[in-house]
Fold:
Amino acid sequence: MINKKVANVQDALKGVSDNMTLMLGGFGLSGIPENAISELINIGAKGLTCISNNAGVDDFGLGLLLQKKQIKKMVSSYVGENDEFERQMLSGELDVELIPQGTLAERCRAAQAGFPAVYTPAGYGTEVAEGKETRDFDGKMYVLEHAFKADFAFIKAWKGDTAGNLIFKGTSRNFNPNMCGAAKITVAEVEELVPLGTLDPNQIHIPGIFVQRVFQGAHYEKRIEQRTVRPKS
Structure:
């Protein structure tokens, strides 16, 4: 079995450069690749196209890359928690492609599975479908959506082994699994990296064949966007 472990986040992100297209897992701030995002800031790559469900918040997640003006285009389905995103979009500084959430997931999955495109009913008859091929299937109209083409996918998992087999925990099992193998190079950061043979095969969510590099992450903040607690009685 190929050993896909790399020593650190710096080695994991070797090859990242300006004007690349990147996929980043997570939903809100749940399951985002915190270490990879920090290293992207250190690298200083510019002109990036980022495919992610959302753009983080102003001072965390992809919001940090927006502050540094490293992102030229966001491909997302929800962006309502980031004031800087709104400012850049309305001023024309940032190119934005808003996609229905299910379509975003399916375009990732199509790339993962090697399909060039998928048909979906979502968005038919709206601006989403403008300029795209449509087709009738059994009396219902569908829109042709092309699979994403990305240079890197950055994934956050709870546990992984040196062969790249991954286990996700709780709601971090969101866009992360669909993005594994959906780019030329998939980089997985994990909270716990264990030797091959340690994981229960029946518990593995993503097999290592979808991962090219894996490393032990560190110093996770795991922020919550809207912390809600029960009022004192």
The two ends are 56 Å apart (CA to CA). DSSP finds six helices and eleven strands in the chain. Residues 101-113 form the longest helix (13 residues).
